[in-house]
Write a structure and sequence with these properties.
218 residues, alpha/beta, Rossmann fold, 4-stranded antiparallel β-sheet, 6 helices, 8 strands, 32% helix
């Protein structure tokens, strides 16, 4: 859920509408036709950059949760679970709930701390903006999904086997990432045999994607 999700494509649809009414609607219809019985966990993930120059700009209770990137920007990653380990013969009726969450997601995300904190601390909270897709927490999300399904062999139901991650992004498949995190994610994916599909809603670039852009810590 990067900031491009609320942009419009050349057909006049927002990218989150394109994701729900387009890709997910077609995917759920195909699952029903093929009588698929998937256990699905659906999570929205975002990275928020804050307009701050030092950790002292944040309330004391939040400073442990704030990170700093290689450009000196302060950020925080958010994850919101819509469905967890749920299984339906027909997922199409669940599209309404997904869309309802997406409509209010941006406002809920940017005002999350100000609503939860005491009024005195909420006034000190820096303003935040949602990152673009390239600066998002893509690899962190793959690691999160790997942690969920890396112990899939324990009490495994034999009526459904295999595991995979499916990531939908409004971008073109270009991500700025840390090399160390990339290597760790790659190793975990290979060790656990987890397939990872990336669905890009943006226009296809003139080069092969996904493309990882590495940066130096210094």
């Amino acid at each position: 859920m990067s900031k491009e999700m609320w942009d419009f494509d050349h057909h006049g649809d927002t990218y989150y509408e394109k994701a729900v009414d387009g890709f997910l609607a077609d995917l759920f219809t195909r699952w029903k036709l093929m009588s698929c019985q998937h256990d699905v966990t659906m999570t929205l993930f975002s990275r928020v950059f804050y307009d701050a120059k030092s950790l002292e700009d944040f309330p004391q209770s939040l400073r442990e949760d704030i990170n700093k990137d290689y450009r000196g920007r302060f950020y925080e990653d958010f994850y919101r679970v819509i469905y967890q380990n749920e299984r339906y013969d027909d997922w199409s009726p669940r599209l309404a709930k997904i869309k309802k969450v997406l409509v209010n997601y941006k406002e809920d995300l940017l005002t999350y701390h100000k609503k939860k904190l005491p009024e005195a601390e909420a006034d000190k909270m820096p303003n935040g903006i949602i990152s673009c897709a390239a600066d998002g927490n893509f690899l962190e999300t793959l690691n999160l999904s790997s942690s969920v399904i890396e112990r899939h062999f324990i009490d495994q139901p034999f009526d459904r086997l295999g595991q995979m991650s499916l990531v939908i992004t409004p971008g073109a498949g270009v991500f700025e990432v840390e090399r160390e995190l990339t290597n760790m994610t790659k190793q975990r994916v290979l060790d656990n045999g987890i397939g990872s599909d990336l669905v890009c809603l943006g226009e296809q670039p003139l080069f092969a994607v996904p493309l990882f852009k590495f940066f130096k810590e210094n």
